[in-house]
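name: query_chain
kind: protein
chains: 1
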Amino acid sequence: MKDKRIVLIGVNHKTAPVELRERLAATDNDEILRRLTELPSVNEAFFLSTCNRVEIITTTEDEPEITIKEIKDFLAHYNQVDLNEFKKSIYVYLDTEAVKHLFLVASSLDSMVIGEPQILGQIKDAYRRSTKQRAVGPILNRLLHKAFSVAKRVRTETNLSRYAVSVSYAAVELAKKIFGDLHGKHILLIGAGEMAELAAHHLLGNGVRDIVVANRTLERAVELSKEFNGKPISLTEISDYLAWTDIVISSTGAPHFIIYYDDIKKVMRQRKNRPIFFIDIAVPRDIDPKLNQLDNVYLYDIDDLQGIVETNKHIREKEAKKAERIVEEEAIKFKWWLETLEAVPIIVLLKQKLEKIRKKELEKTFKHLKHLSDEDKEAIDAMTSAMVKKILHDPVTFLKKREERPKIDLYLDVARKLFNLDEIDRD
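structure:
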């Protein structure tokens, strides 16, 4: 059996600009997978294409350099891009390094925003397409499933995904702490700042039900409300909606406050003291900081949110180290599994030989013991089968165990000769 090698080739947001990634991205994943598996040196293939990365993982029995050249030439030809335009942006990983890289990607340790959950779903979708096209085999099947379990381990054993590292995410995390469940909550978006809009998008993605958009110009309010499937109002109507709102996001260019302490004091009586959360992303501030003196009123400005982000970045760095240790450990385990594959053909032949002997001896025995009932024969068959399994256990375990075993080829050769396995191999 030839050694199977794993080859990973890709470009991502760290190595290639978006213009180049777009040109290499998929237009037809199924066609790409079909064409990859037709390459002479490729045994199995997996293709991942997202806005931040394009990666191909293959197995091969040829020299990796042959497969690398074939895939690079394929990418250039298929996408009609000169190889010279992207060869400096390409990274290549082999065997354990390829395994480790995939585990890092699946665990969101190689993402633009570390800890973001989307990448794992994208890998699972890509794997489903690969299985549908029958592009993956025993090695990549096991590798992808292991990547999913590593990502789950990182998620459960570290706090990597629990700390926001952007202002908009920080706003959502704070809202969750204040309200617990965001389903059915109402948003009032004031102004049209980029971070405020992003925070609104994240909140709507986390179950917030309705959004009202207020702007200095009604035309812009109408435009934004279409994007959010909300309701447009003018700035003068804000006070009419404060009793209804749970979360207020404000980001105008006003030179003075647009929401004052006294206004909210009155509103809280109407709200019967139901909590209200204000996110003031404007500079200068839109909301009177005295609001924090009121019960059940939570006000955070851009500095508060930025402070949370900075704190979280330090926590994430510590959690990332834990996650990287998990990835390293699992990559080593996968390497051990790969190494046991060399012993598989010998183990299969050994099992076949002993099973052949067992069945032949049973036939001879049953011919002389014709008085045995079917039940007796089944019992003897089960007993001899159990004996063979127990006899095989130690040699099979020995052949599979690869740690500190530089002489595996010698052991496999001895096993082949000791049990005369060439004979059954020829059969």
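note: The radius of gyration is 31 Å.
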